[in-house]
Amino acid sequence: MTGKTLTRMDLSEAVFREVGISRNECAQLVESVLTLMSDALVAGETVKISSFGTFSVRDKTSRMGRNPKTGEEVPISPRRVLSFRPSHLMKDRVAAGNKG
Fold first, then answer.
1. Strand, coil or helix: what is 69?
2. pTM of this structure
3. Quick check: 42 and 81 in contact, CB under 8 A?
4. Which own/partner pairs from 7-11 qualify as long-range (CB within 8 Å, at least 24 positions apart)?
5. Fewer CB in a 10 Å sphere around the end CB: N or C, the chain?
6. Alpha-carbon distance 43 to 74, whole Å?
7. How far is Cα 76 from Cα 43, in angstroms, rounded to an integer?
């Protein structure tokens, strides 16, 4: 799994295999969950999935840049960075998976 990006399609397929509802309903379900999480993160909330880990958005420091039209130096909005802190249970599971 090193270097692999987990996509919405991957998540939808996993839900489809586990739950057995239609692929379209699985895709809608995954999209709804991701939208709810994103909205909560943008609102400054921390999203915690019990026994799994915590997602949060942190602001990076603002930067200075130049307005391309005027050449004037202006502040650039700080980047918002999503970070994930896995719980001990998740760390143990990943460590056990890496051993075998």
1. coil
2. 0.57
3. no
4. 8/34
5. C
6. 25
7. 20
Q: Estimate to the nearest angstrom the gap between the alpha carbon of 61 and the chain centroid.
A: 20
What is residue 6's three-state secondary structure? coil
**What is the C-alpha to C-alpha distance for residues 98 and 55, in angstroms, rounded to an integer?**
23
54 Cβ contact partners less than 8 Å away, ≥ 6 residues apart: 46, 47, 48, 84, 85, 87
Residue with the two structure tokens 């019990």: 50
CB 18 within 8 A of CB 25: no
- The DSSP H or E segment spanning 47 is strand 47-49
Which residue is listed with tokens 């295999």? 17
Cα–Cα distance, 34 to 8 (Å, whole number): 9
In whole angstroms, give the CA distance from residue 65 to residue 73: 6
